[in-house]
Specification:
The chain is α+β, with helices and mostly antiparallel strands and 448 residues long. The protein contains ten helices and 19 strands.
Length: 448
């Protein structure tokens, strides 16, 4: 009896152990399946000079569900000699920052962790040229959606004048063949922030199509209703030029008529938030009253970074937010987002490296080393400085997104003579970029 009882106890012990192992195995399988469901397969290829260019494919987890508001505050507070003025006057200088950490995990997944400082999509800042990235993306999206044989970003085009206020164009001496094309416009926008090139993209897409495309894809906090460099011209900006595209033999392959946007857009945020300052400049005179930006372009910091992410990591965004871009389009955008003026031909530019790279190098005359690749789009107008960047150190395997805006004004007077970008905005963006870069290089540990 004792022998039988011992055998039963032994069997019961083995059965309990078996059930425990089975439970743990089932749980692990469930977790693995759940993790697989929570991530999406990514098949993007980075540009050849990127540190991770040889990754054939990878899974990309969804972004963190919320934005961490504490990390950036702690980082900035650790360097009072650099950031105390900004910390003490964050609203005066309209500072907003979004820093997204990129984590490449051992299982091949990538996760993004967002960290914000003073973010508020209802707080207006003039986005200036930072919105030009959206136009380059949507222009390529439109070309691919047209799906016309022979029509692509390199196709020769002619811009016609549909109204007295509009100008036409059938030559572009900055291009190798002397002819305009969507590719040439995009190249000039991304390398040197060319206003005329952006305006041509705006005209090709059309005001309504540009905004509706962005909104329909989920980029809600953006409104582009102005050409850049020509003042508001609210009504005229609703009209966009006719275009004609030709094949290599001069045969017309696509014609686009004059387009008018019958929808009158109003500000996406409360109008009182678009009134800035206590005095402003008008026709050379300083007059009482705030500058009214209610009819100007608008974008939130989060949306600007989402658009950059849609180019750098296209498979990381939800399918509904992806644009109809070919692999060659993505490579083209990445190439010229990171091209320095001295590296460009057709056109060639006699401009410093920091001309359109504010983070890390904006306040210096140093050449940017070859291992530091900055894929970005800046903005600089009406006292506002913006940089929207993916920064990749290919030598030290560092990568992160950083987007920020700062207003360079001390006295609430909106006039060119009262803006002080060289003493306020540019040093701040330079130091911010360097500080976040060093934080990443130090293993994400704050070191003074």
């Amino acid at each position: 009896m004792k022998r039988i009882k011992r055998r039963k106890n032994k069997l019961n012990g083995l059965l309990t152990l078996f059930l425990l192992v089975a439970f743990i195995t089932t749980s692990l399988i469930y977790v693995k399946i759940s993790n697989k469901k929570d991530s999406e397969q990514s098949t993007f290829n980075q540009t050849s000079d990127s540190a991770k260019a040889n990754n054939d494919s990878m899974k990309t987890n969804n972004d963190s569900p919320s934005i961490n508001d504490e990390l950036l505050e702690s980082i900035l507070e650790a360097y009072p000699e650099k950031f105390k003025n900004i910390l003490d006057n964050r609203d005066k200088y309209d500072v907003q920052i979004l820093y997204t950490q990129i984590n490449r995990n051992n299982d091949g997944t990538i996760t993004f962790t967002k960290n914000g400082f003073n973010l508020d999509k209802n707080k207006y800042f003039y986005p200036a040229s930072s919105v030009k990235l959206a136009a380059t993306i949507v222009a390529l999206d439109k070309l691919n959606n047209l799906n016309i044989p022979g029509l692509n970003k390199y196709t020769t085009l002619e811009v016609l004048s549909g109204r007295e206020s509009e100008s036409g164009e059938d030559e572009d001496f900055t291009a190798k063949n002397g002819k305009p094309s969507i590719a040439q416009y995009i190249k000039k926008v991304l390398v040197a922030s060319d206003n005329d090139a952006f305006n041509r993209l705006y005209e090709f897409i059309g005001q309504e199509a540009l905004n509706e495309t962005l909104w329909n894809k989920g980029y809600k906090d953006i409104l582009i209703r102005q050409r850049i460099g020509d003042g508001p011209m609210t009504e005229e900006n609703r009209y966009t030029n006719p275009f004609v595209f030709y094949d290599s033999n001069g045969k017309v392959i696509y014609e686009q008529p004059l387009v008018y946007n019958s929808t009158e857009y109003t500000s996406l945020i409360p109008k009182e938030n678009t009134l800035k300052g206590s005095m402003h400049e008008e026709d050379g005179d300083i007059i009482d009253g705030p500058h009214d930006f209610s009819e100007s372009n608008y974008a939130s910091i989060e949306t600007l970074q989402e658009l950059m992410k849609a180019v750098i990591f296209p498979q990381s965004v939800p399918e509904s937010k992806r644009f109809n871009l070919k692999e060659d389009d993505i490579a083209f955008l990445k190439k010229y987002l990171s091209t320095l003026p001295r590296q460009c031909t057709y056109p060639s530019y006699d401009l410093p490296d920091n001309y359109a790279k504010f983070f890390m190098y904006g306040s210096t005359d140093k050449s940017i080393p070859s291992n530091i690749k900055i894929y970005n789009k800046i903005g600089n107008a009406n006292g506002y400085l913006i940089d929207n960047a993916y920064i990749n150190d290919t030598k030290n395997n560092i990568e992160f997104f950083l987007t920020a805006v700062v207003f360079s004004n001390e006295d609430e007077i909106f006039a060119d003579s009262h803006f002080n970008e060289d003493k306020i905005g540019m040093p701040f963006l330079t130091e911010l970029g360097n500080t976040i870069y060093k934080y990443e290089r130090n293993g994400r540990v704050i070191k003074k």
